[in-house]
Amino acid sequence: MRFKKTTVAATSSVLVAGAATGVAYVREPSAPNLEFDASGCPTRLYERKEPWPQDAGRWGPSSWQEFIEPGAGHAVYCQAAPGSSLEPPLRLTQGLAELEKTLEGLPRRNPKDSWVLPGFPLVNLVLHYPDGRPTVMTFEFNRDAVATHHTVRFSAAEVTRVFTRLWRAEHTAADPRTVPPVECSPTLPDPGDGFLGHPAPDVVARLPHIPSEALPMPLAVVRACRYTADARGRLTLRFHTGTRTELESLREPLKKRDRRPAGRCVWPSRLKAVKAVDSLHLTDVTGRTSDRYIARAACDGASAYWLSTGRAVPPAIDALLSRLPS
Predict the structure, then answer these.
(1) Can you give the residue ranges of every domain in the chain?
(2) pLDDT at residue 9 in the model
(3) Less CB within 10 Å around the terminal CB: N or C of the chain?
(4) Cα gap 308→42, rounded to integer Å
(5) Count of alpha carbons within 13 Å of 10, Cβ hemisphere only?
């Protein structure tokens, strides 16, 4: 643990122990000892151990430290996946000045009340400088806070929103036809084991106070895969199809997030009866893919329904899936 020596002038309105002049010793947390993989993400994402405050305070390092240094060469957005692995990182090499300006302008007090909503992933944002130094930030979305090892700021959601916009601008393909489709996996997990699909790849979408679309970018290609149960009950790939046409008709019914409670079709007793599943892989013009999973089973008058919500599949998507042999 290092200590930073701070001299308080006699004319300052902040005094130590009532003295006219004095020296205050403010504890400065040590930088975390992190290792980085080839992508630039920590091999184990940095997670703040100290309590998260509601403001930067008057005495701690957050009250006087600059949040970040300008001049980064690139930035990497790192997000934990379920389990111990990481989602594919997002690398930003353009628009760094705008990102740094956003970080430097973050408020020192939380402008909103805190809320406690579980389920946000662990996220790091890493600035890499030309001399090899990194600055690692970790996020606490329940408090809308972001922190380095010594400094806390707020409006964390704005940081992810700006980064996302800059990353999309940098990585949008000039020709969507060059974006490759997702390959179908040979097998899928058993739906009876609680397989409920995956959310869209955008942490901003999980912040309830920010309106967002499930598929915010135009699509480049869609792949559909059909799996049926083999003799041992494993869902095995049987057929697949894809399209690069009429993509907006596939995207439109999925853009609005369905925040209604899941229907009874996703109850475990229903999932155990599922013997066929279609996977739908919607790849946008940046190359990012949102995966959806459809149960091929009758329930509530529908012949197919989303595994994640138990609701009927829209007609445009059902028409694409009808190309797959039964």
Answers:
(1) 1-30, 33-171, 176-321
(2) 30
(3) N
(4) 31
(5) 2
Phi-psi region of 155 (alpha: psi -120 to 50; beta: other; left: phi over 0): left
Q: Cα(326)–Cα(317) distance, rounded to whole angstroms?
A: 16
| Closest by CA position to 201, among listed 291, 261, 125 | 291
pLDDT averaged over every residue in the chain = 78
For the stretch 199-255, pLDDT in tens is 333 444 444 444 556 788 899 999 999 999 888 878 899 999 999 999 999 999 888
State the CB neighbour count (10 A cutoff) for residue 180.
10
Write the DSSP symbol of residue 203. G
Chain-centre distance for alpha carbon 276: 30
Residue 286 corresponds to which tokens in the numbers above? 């940046």
123, 79 in Cβ contact below 8 A?
Answer: yes
pTM above 0.85, yes or no: no
Those residues with Cβ within 8 angstroms of residue 209's Cβ, 6 or more apart along the chain or in another chain = 112, 157
Q: Using CA atoms, how far apart are residues 302 and 312, in angstroms rounded to an integer?
A: 6
